[in-house]
Amino acid sequence: MQALFPCLRPLHGPLRSNICAVSIFLSRSPNSTHPARLHRRSAHTPADDPNFLSIVDNPPNLVKSGRRHGPGLIVLALIPITAFALGSWQVLRLGWKTDLIARFEDRLVRSPLPLPPQIDPAAIKDFDYRRVYATGHLRHDQEMLIGPRMHDGNNGYLVVTPLEREGEGTTVLVNRGWIPKKLKRHADRREGLPTGEVKVEGLLREPWKKNMFTPDNKPELGEFYFPDVEQMAKLTGSQSVWIEETMDPDLLKAYDREAKGIPIGRPAEVRLVCRNHHHAMDGRKKASIGHCPEGKAE
């Protein structure tokens, strides 16, 4: 101890013991700057090797592997392109829907037109959802029931009856509304079969289009699953003109009609097919947008 620390020779007592203990601790510390330790740490550094090359002396070279980009990069590139295309399509559909709502709102607020004796089927598209009225006699003997159809959770049918008007070739088809299945027979719903001249007010409609999931009608068996206007017109000798009879929405009146077998007509409103969007516009009547394919109204 005295050889290593000669400065401690004159000291005696507790002070000398404490200083010596500290000195021994420092000499054994791994961070000690003892000459022997400094020599061991600096004796084997990589820089002392004459063959050592650092990253500065020998920078890495980029080597092309020759492998082309996989499908993942193509998918990533298609994502922004697809998003842009869908956004543009939505903007175009917004303009189409706005124009369609305006046109149908205009037709609904107008007073009903008298239905001409002869109607050009090609012109019906320009008058779709136009309120019209006609007078004549309902041919209950040629009645056709389309079903099954649900109404407030109950199964039933749509009643389609030819309206025979004055003059040859003036008959049109009228969708009178819904009746419950239990009142399918004429004998069970006498009050729903008016005789004499009647006035029908409703919406002039374009012919329906059958989807791929709906079975074909079987007119020879009296079974109709969808309103094939042209087929029904040929069966009854009518024009290919479809009118949907309307009524003011009244819950009590609808219950009374259901009990008596009187067809429940639809409200005078337009249900357009606009995917994932619902909208309502109120005038004298209401135009609403629902969900159907290809922007077709129902």
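the 2nd protein, sequnce then structure:
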Amino acid sequence: MSAIFFYAGWTLLPNLVTGWVQSLYYGLTIRAGDPKPQPGSPRWNTHRRRIQIVVIAAYLLYTIVETDWEIRRAGDFYQDLGVTPDVDDRGIKSRFRRLAALHHPDKISSAAPDSRASSESYFVHLKQAQDTLLDPTKRFAYDRFGPDSTSWRHCSSVRDYLLLGMENAAPYYVGGGVFMLLLGWTGYLEWGCYWRYIIFASLALFEFSTITRPYTLPVLTSFLNPLISKLTAHPPYVPFQSLILIRKLVLTLFIAFSQLGPLLSEPAPSPTPATKPASAKDHEAQQLSRLAGLTAATDFEATRLLGLEMSPFAGDDEGLGRVRGRMQEWLVQNTVRADPEVRDAVGRVLVRKRREGAPQGARGTK
């Protein structure tokens, strides 16, 4: 079920959040009344592409942090005992004796049955942690395969644990490799296809090295865990926890690349010198199309602004009629009569009327 939510989140959330962020961005950066970029325009597409890249990168980081939080919440035997992964047998026994003195069922009052039951369960868990970590074979399996190895009843040697662990991991890599090949053949993994195969093969090699080495890889003991312990209060990673985190990281990167690829490889809108010039007819058609779009946008904004100005008169038919009458009068006075041809025509009519009504021989009638 969690995997379904994971894929559904990557399918729906980036586009949905991008729309919200873009609307919020326009609301904060564009003043009221100023025109906003219309959907589909070059400026709108550029803003959406940049915002979507930021949203996908942020969701990628959130997914990694969430995976780390889930690993820490699940815990491990070392955290439960309060020791580090490099502790020796003496340290494990000493720590268990201290915890047993606090959480042994005999230390809990019988008047609290719920507390006693909880204490018994926790003490059994601590006893299992001690027994697993004190057994070299079981500790080897636990460090590499996690709590699942404690339920492998038919394994008695390191070889048995390795064979069963690789058998459990094989479907992940075989199925993942076949799935990537099918997506590549169908054209869904065109962007970064080569690097996907390299990363997937590196993950398989890293996991194989982690589970087959008799010691923990130096990259974990000498670099990652000391760095984390120095900078944060994060407990050290056990090898199986690092494998869980890296698997989730690689899977998340693959999904993120499939969405970031088309955005990062989108060609720049500015033409290059090697671009073939369009014909005069095509250029004229493009200009007319831009002019039509600009006219439509201007008409839309003018209608919107007029509606804002007329909003105080909503529901007042008499006031709205007076406003319309005044607007018509203003248009006649400032637009029609201000036209030079209209003024010339009115002047000619007035001169003709004066001549027709004047007495014979009056000045200006000849």
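DSSP finds 13 helices and no strands in the chain. Confidence is low (pLDDT under 50) at residues 270-278.
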